[in-house]
Design a protein that fits this description.
Pfam families: Ank_2 (PF12796). There is one protein chain. A hairpin with a 7-residue loop joins strand 1 (83-84) and strand 2. The termini are far apart. This protein has helices spanning 2-7, 22-29, 32-45, 61-78, 96-117, 133-139, 143-150, 156-163, 173-178, 190-202; strands spanning 83-84, 92-93. By secondary structure, the protein is mainly α. It has one domain (2-220): Alpha Horseshoe (Serine Threonine Protein Phosphatase 5, Tetratricopeptide repeat), CATH 1.25.40.20.
C-alpha cells in the first residue's frame, strides 16, 4: 500500500499536527518492511526523503528509533527471567512478551541501519538537549547500536568530531556512557555499560573534555 501511495503522489515529507512524518511512525514501530517499500517507491519516483526532519519535540526519525530501542530494553529488564523447562535440564524458555520485545529490538536495529544508508545523519542534534544519535544510542544501552553508529564514519577526522560532539550542557557520549544508571526506563547492567564505555574510548573519545559543570567523564564515576 505504501509503495502505491507514493507512486500516486503522496507527500512523503508531510508532517502531522505533532510534526511527525511517515519516517517517525516507521521508526517507533520498527517497520523495516515499510521503510524498504518507501525507499523503493521514492527512488523510482525520484522523490527525496527528508531523513533529518524533526517533529515538534525536536526529534528526527533516527532519534525516535534509538529511543524506542531504549524503551524496549527497559521493558525487558522489568519482565521476569526466563523460566526453566522442567523436563529439559539447563534449558530456559522466554515468555511470549519477551520474544516480542526482542523481535522489535532487532527490527529497530535494522531500521537504524537502513536509515543511515538512506542518509540520516547521526550527528544531528535533538532540539531539547542537543543529544546526537550517539548519545541516544548510549542511553538505549545497546552495544550493537553504539557500534553501528561509530562504524558509520570511516573518515578519522569526521569520526573524531562525531564521538566528541557535545550536548548543550557540554556532555559527550562518553559522559553519557559513564553516567548511565537505572532511571526506571533504561536499566543497564554494569558489564554492558563497561562495554559501551570501552567502545567509545577505543574510537577516539577525548577524555579531557569537561562539561558545563567542569566535569570530565571520569569525574562522573
Amino acid at each position: 500500500m505504501v509503495y502505491h501511495l507514493v507512486r500516486l503522489g503522496a507527500d512523503v515529507n508531510k508532517q502531522d499536527k505533532e510534526g511527525r512524518t511517515a519516517l517517525h511512525f516507521i521508526a517507533v514501530n520498527g517497520a523495516i518492511e515499510v521503510l524498504e517499500c518507501l525507499y523503493k517507491a521514492c527512488k523510482e519516483e525520484h522523490k527525496e526523503i527528508n531523513m533529518d526532519c524533526k517533529n515538534y519535540q525536536g526529534l528526527t526519525a533516527l532519534h525516535c528509533a534509538l529511543m524506542e530501542s531504549g524503551h524496549c530494553q527497559g521493558q525487558l529488564k522489568q519482565l521476569p527471567r526466563a523460566q526453566s523447562i522442567t523436563n529439559v535440564p539447563g534449558t530456559f524458555m522466554e515468555t511470549r512478551e519477551k520474544q516480542v520485545l526482542r523481535g522489535k529490538q532487532q527490527k529497530l536495529q535494522q531500521v537504524v541501519k537502513a536509515m543511515l544508508v538512506m542518509g540520516a545523519s547521526p550527528r544531528c542534534q535533538d532540539a531539547k538537549s542537543g543529544r546526537t544519535g550517539l548519545h541516544h544510542a548510549v542511553q538505549s544501552c545497546s552495544t550493537e547500536l553504539v557500534e553501528l553508529l561509530l562504524f558509520h564514519y570511516h573518515n578519522a577526522d569526521i569520526k573524531h568530531k562525531f564521538v566528541n560532539q557535545t550536548t548543550y550542557n557540554g556532555n559527550t557520549a562518553l559522559h553519557a556512557a559513564v553516567g548511565l544508571q537505572d532511571d526506571g526506563r533504561v536499566m543497564c547492567v554494569l558489564l554492558l555499560q563497561a562495554d559501551i564505555v570501552r567502545l567509545i574510548a577505543k574510537n577516539g573519545a577525548d577524555q579531557s573534555i569537561r562539561n558545563d559543570e567542569n566535569d570530565r567523564a571520569i569525574d562522573l564515576v
